[in-house]
Amino acid sequence: MLLSHTMSKENIWLRYFATFVAYISLQILIGQASMHFYRSTCFVYIGFFLSLPWYKTTLIFQLLLGFFIGLIIDAFYNSLGVHAFTVVLLIYCRNLLLHLLPPIAVNDYEYATKPSLYSMGFKKFSIYVLFLTVIYHITVFCLDAWNFVSFFSVLPSLFINVVLSYFVICSFQIISALVGNTSIR
Amino acid sequence: MKKLFRFLYNYKNLLTFLTLEFCSLLLVFNQHFHTKFKQVNSSNLSIGSVYEFFSSLRQYTYLKENYIKILNENAYLKEQILQNSIQANKISDKFSEKQFKFIPAQIINNSITHTKNYLTLNKGASSGIIPGMGVITESGIVGSVKSVSEHFATVVSLLHTDVLVSAKLIPSNVMGTIRWYGYNPLQVQLLYIPRHLKVEVGDKVVTSGYDATFYTDIPIGVVSRVELNKESLFYDIWVDISTDFSTLQHVYVLENNLRVERESLENVTKSYYE
Hints:
heterodimer, A: 66% helix, B: six-stranded antiparallel barrel, six-stranded antiparallel β-barrel, 7 helices
């Protein structure tokens, strides 16, 4: 069981690695399946960056981590730099947004270290995820295709992508909370 | 000096953010880095094997379909052999038969949703694939090999906005250039057909064989829409692609034995007159 009840430091790293692998697998599966139904793709793995710890981890570390993971994702899509740029932007925006909508810890007096569906509540979490998902998809679109296709012609598929990633991220939160009981807050 | 350090320390987050964004923008827009970081693409060993794993999961659902497809193709090839043996008696042109070899490969990653689409194949340098080779299926052209590792190869798909393919129209034999304009994976455009010629809906578009990547008469598609503006010098022609990119499974990589000879000759001629 990777998602064990003890919260030692190694276990936390292992758990984040497992989460990352799960998200990337989900992304590849959804990408392959959605290719047959409509001509666009959603990025569900941003759920991983949305659930990274924020309060007690320095922002510089988060940004560097985001940059290198972004490069790994770029290797999957043959798009050198596009996802690295967008992930760094995402993490910076996330930090600003989390100061406006802070997740609350169990004792109700301090901030929770990790934003999740349970520490933020449904309303706050929805705003958080939807806002950042829209930013992510628009930025990737602008960097990838900015002079080939007009922006308004892709708005419908952008809408589908955002809604789909929102549902996947929320269900991922619920499932991971059910699997590892202590990781809720 | 102290003030400078304090300033840097106070704005350390913002400065890191801006530096990283600048670096990644450099990576995106500077072509120099694309050649330097060749490892960062899906022909890389680790990422290739991840894609291979997922495609092997997916392959099970297509087994029966593929079996029928391969049977059909086999039948078609047998017919061709029969025809060839009849023709061979008339013309003894042994050399052109041996010029192209076919290397069968399987697609382990495919995309049609971006504006720059790539495929990944499960064969690489160890099977004799080198960058620049053409890739086709039984129904038409697919793209050309971009980079290879020991066991994998990345292919630039025809659905890539930077790819130009030399093509010709079939009854009239006029030469033009095929280019994809993004968004619709079912259509490409045929460029540079001058306005004094006749083009009709339903004309076939095939490769011209003027570049060393493909041989002549590989199907590309069928003309589906022709427009001619009053002022323009060339037609606007839309072509329906004959290859269905969303269900691609097996492809053939074309090995041209005379490629080096041909290109060096063409380069010598060019450098002499320029």
